[in-house]
């Protein structure tokens, strides 16, 4: 099991953590009512969102580093992921979430077991209320769970997901090299990047069903990703918001063909807090929205130590610890994890 999944393994899947049969629910149940009592509003949904960067732009590397510092998120075009493949992922995921609930339940994630399969977002146990969401997580081979969903017809789904994952891996590693170089880390000397061993890679298919009362519901509650980097494909329906100091919640408007790249906790720690681990959430919507998140984290035994320099600060803001140790702290303290390891 990957380090990311491990952090949540003991907290998952109380019986109430099984997705609703959304097709048969016409009003918002009390279990799913979220009242925004935080002072994080007024929402800045009308502010300009994170930058759109073309990877083919000669200035792309500088723009990416700038976005890592200011936003921790950017949208990317010129990324080389074929449109046809992105569309195929969308249609395979639609096929999956369109299955009758009894069928999806056959691939339900099991408590304490593999984190692959169907269920609510892994962060659910940290909240009292339930999110308006159903998800399907793929770690390692997709075959065993896909066979449960489509005993005679699983190959197309598996081939698409495996192909997509391998394309995203190459792109993610290209972006990681750019960011590591800016931290004065030579990617050639990073063993896990060269050997691809022990990485924690997860592909999460998210579905936010059409919601009868979207302003009182929550798609995914605010969180930062326990990754180095996350690559997200949004569908045409908007819903993702990122929190920006001074502006509040800002919408990341989907751009046709673009993917959204966001930094997770590990780049924040490595950069001594200079790169932002972006806090984000998904609001519920009147029409169904799908998204696909590809999480990439180094192996569990990789030591994450803040880089010190004139640019990144000469005093470490965070303790040095392994990926696995941080994942354990996140699994316990969730949003407070970074302050727990602060010096
Ligand atoms: O649906 C989205 O746009 C974001 C999903 C997300 O934040 C996640 O899966 O961690
Ligand atoms: Fe996320």
From TrEMBL:
SUPFAM superfamilies reported in the protein's UniProt record: Clavaminate synthase-like
Protein origin, superkingdom = Eukaryota
Question: Which GO terms fall under molecular function for this chain's record?
Answer: metal ion binding; oxidoreductase activity
Q: Which Gene3D superfamilies match?
A: B-lactam Antibiotic, Isopenicillin N Synthase, Chain
**What is the residue range of the signal peptide feature?**
none
Against InterPro entries, the record matches this protein to: DIOX_N, IPNS-like_FE2OG_OXY, IPNS-like_sf, Iron_ascorbate_oxido_reductase, Oxoglu/Fe-dep_dioxygenase_dom
Which is a Pfam family this sequence falls into?
A: 2OG-FeII_Oxy
In Swiss-Prot or TrEMBL terms, this protein is called Gibberellin 3-beta-dioxygenase 1-like
């Amino acid at each position: 099991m990957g380090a990311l999944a491990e952090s949540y393994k003991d907290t998952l899947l109380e019986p109430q953590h099984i997705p609703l049969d959304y097709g048969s629910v016409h009003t918002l149940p009390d279990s799913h009512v979220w009242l925004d009592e935080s002072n994080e509003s007024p929402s800045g949904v009308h502010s300009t969102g994170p930058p759109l960067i073309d990877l083919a732009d000669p200035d792309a590397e500088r723009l990416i580093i700038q976005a890592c510092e200011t936003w921790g998120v950017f949208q990317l075009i010129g990324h080389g992921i074929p449109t046809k493949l992105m569309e195929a992922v969308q249609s395979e995921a639609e096929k999956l979430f369109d299955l009758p609930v009894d069928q999806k339940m056959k691939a339900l994630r099991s408590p304490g077991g593999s984190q692959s399969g169907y269920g609510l977002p892994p962060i659910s146990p940290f909240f009292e209320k339930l999110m308006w969401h159903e998800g399907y997580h793929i770690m390692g081979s997709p075959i065993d769970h896909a066979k449960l969903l489509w005993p005679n017809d699983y190959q197309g789904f598996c081939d698409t997901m495996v192909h997509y994952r391998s394309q995203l891996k190459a792109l993610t590693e290209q972006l990681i090299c750019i960011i590591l170089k800016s931290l004065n880390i030579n990617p050639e000397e990073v063993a896990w990047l060269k050997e691809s061993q022990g990485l924690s890679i997860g592909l999460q298919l998210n579905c936010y069903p059409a919601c009868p009362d979207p302003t009182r519901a929550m798609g995914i509650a605010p969180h930062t990703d326990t990754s180095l980097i996350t690559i997200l494909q949004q569908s045409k329906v908007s819903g993702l918001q990122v929190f920006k100091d001074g502006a509040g919640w800002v919408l990341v408007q989907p751009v046709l063909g673009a993917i959204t790249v966001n930094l997770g906790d590990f780049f924040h720690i490595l950069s001594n807090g200079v790169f932002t681990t972006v806090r984000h959430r998904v609001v519920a919507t009147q029409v169904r929205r799908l998204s696909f998140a590809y999480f990439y984290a180094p192996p569990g035994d990789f030591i994450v130590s803040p880089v010190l320099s004139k640019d990144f600060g000469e005093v470490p803001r965070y303790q040095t610890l392994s990926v696995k140790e941080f994942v354990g702290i996140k699994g316990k303290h969730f949003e407070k994890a970074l302050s727990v390891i602060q010096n």
